[in-house]
Specification:
303 residues, alpha/beta, Arc Repressor Mutant, subunit A, D-Maltodextrin-Binding Protein, domain 2, 3 domains, 44% helix, 22% strand
Length: 303
């Protein structure tokens, strides 16, 4: 079967001539001389294998074959324009998709206002957020399952991974009036003297909690170990003990009447940062989200 090869400019010229029905008017509009336009239409007719125009010294009219091609050309040019407009929107970060991966405390405590601001500016961009532990966040960024990751702790940038610190997340004491009645700062030593509810091993919160307690010359012997922050909040709210958590985790604890006090000796801080793949270019939408979150004063907002 013969394959017809026409480029977009030839289709545009053909449709303008079909509409104007004048070689001189069409030639002027498309920026060609009259003879050049006539030669192009001749080549188009040769390629399609059919006469497209009946023409004499005064009139230019479409043949039935020309009418059929005109209808198809209008469809092709319209779809092409729509596709290019869509791609232009993608390049301008008005369209596309951004996949974020982060610790649950970060996705809940940090991202919602940032996402809301981003969506107000770019409502047609799709945002997908995946909660994960720190190692899983990094793996998702490295293997392309996430554009941007949010982690805790200082991560060394490598030839595959870029790390950018965003803010410091300070630990606070969490409890009920039965444990934290005085409106003052509490020490880690005071916290571990009471029933202590700890996050599970392998989490950044647990590692930093153990480091703070070791600095106090004590050992952590939790009465409960939990994997989810909401569970920790529920146990504390029931008066089963106290806990020490970073400030960003507070929105994840649930709607409980909890008391939050400063926590000192030592003052523990969890560094929150974002990671991106060093060897992969971000999409325009993902780059726009990256630039927005880097430009915001997140430390002030979190404080």
């Amino acid at each position: 079967m013969k394959r017809i090869n026409l480029d977009l400019f030839e289709l545009q010229v053909f449709t303008r001539l079909a509409e104007l029905q004048s070689f001189s008017a069409a030639a002027k509009e498309v920026g060609l001389s009259g003879p050049a336009l006539s030669r192009m239409i001749g080549r188009v007719e040769t390629r399609v294998g059919a006469r497209l125009f009946d023409r004499d010294t005064r009139n230019v009219r479409l043949t039935p074959q020309g009418e059929a091609l005109r209808d198809l050309a209008i469809r092709i040019l319209g779809e092409t324009e729509n596709a290019l407009n869509e791609f232009n929107g993608y390049l301008a970060a008005r369209r596309g998709r951004v996949i974020l991966a982060g610790l649950p405390s970060v996705t809940a405590g940090l991202l919602p206002p940032v996402v809301a601001r981003f969506m107000a500016q770019r409502p047609d961009v799709e945002i997908r957020i995946n909660d994960a532990l720190s190692d899983d966040v990094i793996a998702a960024v490295l293997d392309g399952r996430a554009d941007i990751g949010f982690t805790a702790g200082l991560i060394e940038s490598t030839d595959r991974l870029r790390f950018r610190p965003l803010l410091e997340d300070r630990f606070v004491a969490i409890g009920t009036p039965g444990y934290l009645a005085e409106d003052r700062a509490y020490t880690w030593a005071e916290m571990v003297e009471q029933p202590f509810i700890a996050m599970a091993r392998g989490t950044s919160v647990r590692a930093l909690s153990e480091a703070a307690i070791v600095q106090s010359g004590l050992l952590l012997r939790p009465c409960f170990e939990v994997s989810h922050l909401a569970t920790c909040g529920a146990l504390v709210a029931e008066g089963l003990g106290v806990s020490a958590l970073p400030s960003l985790t507070l929105p994840v604890l649930g709607r409980h009447a909890l008391i939050v006090r400063p926590l000192v000796e030592p003052s523990m801080i969890r560094l929150i940062g974002l990671v991106t793949a060093a060897d992969r270019t971000l999409s325009p939408a993902a780059q726009a989200f990256h630039d927005l979150i880097c430009d915001l004063n997140l430390q002030q907002a979190s404080g």
